[in-house]
Amino acid sequence: MKKKYSGLIVLFMAWSMNAQEVLTVENCRQMAISHNKTLQIAQENVNAAKELKKAAFTQFFPNFSANGTYTWNEKNLSLLSEDKYLPVYNMSANGTPNYAGSWNNSWTMVNGSPVPLDATGVPFNPKTNPEKILWKNYALLPKDAMEFDIQNVFAGTVGFVQPLFMGGKIMELNKIAKYGENLAEAQKENKEHELLIEVDEAYWRVVSLENKIKLAKEYRALVAKVEENVKIMIEEGVATKADALKVRVKLNEADVTVARAENGLSLSRMALNQLCGLPLDAVYTLNDENLVKETVVPQLIPVEQALQNRPEITALTQLQNIAKSNEKLMYSRFLPTIALSGNYMVSNPNVYNGYENEFGGMFTVGVVAHVPLFHFGDKIHTLNAAKAQSRIATMQLDETKEKMQLQIKQTSYKVAESLKKQTTTQHNVEQADENLKYATDGFEEGVISSTDLLGAQTAWLSAKSDNIDALIEIRLCDLYLQKSQGTLSIAAATNNKIQKTDKK
């Protein structure tokens, strides 16, 4: 589709170089849709909604995560304070540890050799024999054995959480995401319809002004011819300067009408070019510049079907669905949640094996349950607010349906009215043509004054102009009927039966 639109843009941009190119209303619609920034934004909203829908679906699956840390500590970990010793022992004369009755003995050899004993088995006292031996304690658990190197700590965790029961939250979030996608699609379609209406109005405005310029020039030519005849009649003495002044005033008015129509056409063409993404000074011919009479048979469809076709109703329906799902989501906050969790934890120093300087880890698996108890009415208030929003969405939908039913009736009546107006204005044109012919012949024969001829010409101009308006109106009314019934599409071909005949 994008390639198609890109090709159209390239083609139509080249048309500005060639005044002979012809644009149809279908061409203008396609260019406008490919160029319009509002529609591009609407498409991006659709893309975003699709991604959010995919994201919501992933909530059914487990959530995996990994964490890693590194910490530098100034000191090592010690389970004993400074100069603190656990129970000690001394060595017997034969070199074996002597525990019995030795827990309060504070003396042992520095070099680890057995302590000399006297005849009774009592160690020599260093206070009385300082020149012979030195003494030291032997701790059962020395201080250095209770100190661990934790200056460089590495830790990591890999885990998952699998929702088991979330009170319906995940289900409703997925529904909301789906409704959000449908809402974005409906909003895009509505923007598309609005753009088509805008393009068609600009297109037919140009067609109308093209025809009115031709008509204004024809009228000026008629008045100019009268002026020439009046000049001759003044020379012949059968007309007065007052007659010439009356004709001159009409001729000036005709010049103003032509200039006003040309200025309006220039602005209307620029507006259409801007909508289509063409240069403002692009020159082209519109396919429908030669207006023809149309007979439109309105194709009315059942109201319920028309309402289903309307993107506005679709959008409001999705908003109603979102409001209802949000209400259920608020209900779910009262329910407990259950999830399965698992982790694998690793560290260095290995906290699972005596703080050895090596990596070590273990697995953990568990079930996590969260039960809401009391939150000072927070959940009640939010639930009530959600209920109110749901009621609002329902009332907005019902009100819009009523308005659109009325709109369908009004547009169908306007189509019928425009058909009658077209027939009436066509009869008026035929009568104005005949009246102008009789007035022109009578003026040339001298039985009709210039004033009467100018009046006939003015009536002819008015009838022709009204007929152009009627021919444009019937096309726009049919367009509005399609819009009200939701049958408007990019293709200009209408579902209504249209018979075209040559304009008389």
Order of helices and strands: HEHHEEEEEEEHHEEHHEEHHE
Shape: elongated
CATH architecture of the largest domain: Up-down Bundle
Distance from N terminus to C terminus (CA atoms, Å) equals 42 Å
What is the fold's blueprint, element by element?
Blueprint: H1 2-14, E1 22-23, H2 25-35, H3 37-57, E2 63-72, E3 77-78, E4 88-91, E5 97-98, E6 138-139, E7 147-148, E8 152-165, H4 169-236, H5 241-276, E9 285-286, E10 293-297, H6 303-309, H7 311-332, E11 337-348, E12 360-370, H8 378-445, H9 450-485, E13 497-501
Parallel strand pairs: 1-9
Antiparallel strand pairs: 2-8, 3-7, 4-5, 4-6, 8-11, 10-13, 11-12
Describe the structure.
The protein is of the alpha+beta class. It has helices at 2-14, 25-35, 37-57, 169-236, 241-276, 303-309, 311-332, 378-445, 450-485, and strands at 22-23, 63-72, 77-78, 88-91, 97-98, 138-139, 147-148, 152-165, 285-286, 293-297, 337-348, 360-370, 497-501. The chain has 2 domains: 2-35 and 166-332 and 378-501, Outer membrane efflux proteins (OEP), CATH 1.20.1600; 77-148, no CATH class. The chain has 9 helices and 13 strands. Strands 2-8-11-12 form a 4-stranded antiparallel sheet, with no helix packed on it. Strands 5-4-6 form a 3-stranded antiparallel sheet, with no helix packed on it. Strands 1-9 form a two-stranded parallel sheet. Strand 4 (88-91) and strand 5 (97-98) form a beta hairpin. Helix 2 packs across helix 4 (169-236). The longest helix is centred in the middle third of the chain and has 68 residues, at 169-236. The two termini are 42 Å apart. The model is unreliable at 1-20, 100-106, 131-138 and 492-504 (pLDDT under 50).
